[in-house]
Amino acid sequence: MKVVHILNGDALKERFPSTIDGEIMVARECLVDGNVTADSLDDLFQIRAAYLDSEESSEKEFYRNKVVPEFEKIIALPKHSTINLWFEDDLFCQVNLWFVSHLIEKFCSSPAVFLVRPHTDIRYGFGGLDSNGLVQAHSRRVKLSSKDINLFSSLWNLYQDQKHAEIVKLSQKESEKFPFLKAAAQANLERFPDDGSLGRPEQTLLKIMTDINSTEFGPVFQEFHKREGIYGFGDLQVMKMFDTLADRT
């Protein structure tokens, strides 16, 4: 029986305890950023590669050579594999989790699936755990039923269709078992105000620039990470918003 650990990004891979057996696969996507609307998986990969290449030259080759193959490994998992999903509670991680769950539901046959979550402040996630802490997180993993996988997959479908209010409704319905979904779903909804005004992340950035009286990216990013850890945005995602808003201050 094959045992795999699907990690959200390479940072955890570099620190992954050698005492935990299994093959490591890495979800190197940032599906919370950019277009994800597509008619098929192949279309999605092409759209994502083109989007990332428009943001940063040469990213298309990286996407094809380093991102897509990891998802193809998931698709090709043998029957009855044991899959450990190492994802945090922030929106960045959650959207990737929903997508990976969609792949598992669609392509994996009779897997045993477990969710591994950090028990730290949302700002730190797995990064706030040492090797022993990661081992303990693994020991406290929660087994997911096929219904649970279907829930996460359904959230991905709603996200892909930009049905953000329905994501909130579904997360509220399932809040007893997965209470962490509510905050991520609400934070996502607040990115897209109906009145066309600035979303919550942009509004927070403007307030930070006023509060700390600075338009220097470093301090602003650090404060954003403190105030809006629920988004899980890295410096690249925040930088794009910051560059757009800097002239307003």
Describe this entry's structure for a reader.
The protein has 249 residues and is an alpha/beta fold. Helix content is 53%, strand content 9%. It has 11 helices and 5 strands; from the N terminus they run βαβααβαβαβαααααα. The chain has helices spanning 10-15, 41-55, 59-75, 91-107, 131-139, 146-160, 164-173, 180-189, 200-211, 217-227, 235-245, and strands at 3-7, 23-26, 82-86, 112-116, 142-144. Helix 2 runs antiparallel to helix 3 (59-75), helix 4 crosses helix 6 and helix 9 crosses helix 10. The chain is globular, with a radius of gyration of 18 Å. The termini are far apart.
What keywords describe this structure?
single chain; 249 residues; alpha/beta; 53% helix; 9% strand
Shape assignment: globular
Total DSSP helices: 11
Portion of residues in helices? Answer: 40-55%
Strand content: 5-15%
Mean pLDDT score: 95
C-alpha Rg, in Å? 18 Å
Question: What class would the helix/strand composition place it in?
Answer: alpha/beta
Order of strands across the main sheet: 2-1-3-4-5
H-E order = EHEHHEHEHEHHHHHH
Strands, count: 5
Low-confidence stretches: none
Q: Main β-sheet, in a few words?
A: 5 strands, mixed
Terminal Cα separation, in Å? Answer: 57 Å
